[in-house]
Amino acid sequence: MFNIKKLLFGGAASPTDLAPEVREALAAWRAQPAAALDEVHFHTRYVVLDIAAAGLNVEEDSLQGIAAIGLGRGGIVLPADVLAIDLATGGEDDAAAFDRQLMALLQFTAKCPLVSYRVPFVATFLQRAFRERLGLDFQPVWIDLAWLLADLFKEINDTVGPRDVWLEAFHVQGSAGRDPVTNALALARLLQVALPRAAERGMDTPGKLMDAAQARRFLRQSA
Asked: Residue 88's pLDDT is what?
């Protein structure tokens, strides 16, 4: 089992400390252009992300797994467009393997807009891992389904609540446990529901989805 906590508490990594193939892949990823936020949904690849963690405290609890699912052409999930990373197995303190897995995630997401539920929780775990292991300030474009769904479907729930509220409302099967692949697939199906409603309301680009989710969060927190 990876000793993730030990790997993440040794101080920020320097690119010169990385394996050559990881360092080269990271440089190539940095050189990629950012995703266009003004493209319509049909021309945008969204990546839905979910994680499994040992607990809720990023300072104390370890990352157990990561799942990412790509959606293209307005919300189609392709069987091959899935990445699953299991951090609960592997050699003790295998830092090089952990670095390669994080790099694989970067290459998979390819600077596309990322979608999750309650983004701050997911983002905090990932930011720490990328900062400590790859020396990377991971600041992708995030779209938070927790706030977006509350804005698009006020008739169901006009505030942020448990993810299960939305899964039940749209008859989507999720996981009662911490299986990130099952949970990411459930979030992908919620995004599939959200995209047509968003387009009907003129939110036809990832930039507009992000703005709508952020505006909803701001209004709720200011109320």
From this structure: 74
How far is Cα 190 from Cα 144, in angstroms, rounded to an integer?
Answer: 12
The confidence score (pLDDT) of residue 14 equals 57
Could you give the CA distance from residue 61 to residue 39 in angstroms, rounded to a whole number?
38
Residue 69 to residue 47: CA distance in whole angstroms: 5
Q: Left, alpha or beta for 62 (phi > 0: left; psi -120 to 50: alpha)? A: beta
**What domain count does the chain have?**
1
Q: Is the pLDDT of residue 6 over 90?
A: no
pLDDT digit string, tens, across residues 144-158: 999 999 999 999 998
Pull the structure tokens for residue 170: 């749209």
The pair of structure tokens assigned to 113 is 């807009």
CATH code at 139?
3.30.420.10
Radius of gyration of the chain (CA): 18
Which among 19, 4, 205, 221 has a CA at the least distance from the CA of 113? Answer: 205
- Length of the chain equals 223
The pTM (predicted TM-score) of the whole model is 0.89
Range of the domain at 77: 4-222
Sign of CA pseudo-dihedral 127, 77, 26, 86: positive
Is residue 44 scored above 90 in pLDDT? yes
Which of 176, 33, 56 lies closest to 110 in space, CA to CA?
A: 33
Q: What does each C-alpha distance from 97 to 68, 105, 192 come to in angstroms?
A: 18, 13, 33
pLDDT per residue as tens digits for the range 57-115: 555 457 889 999 999 999 999 889 999 999 876 544 578 899 999 999 999 999 999 99
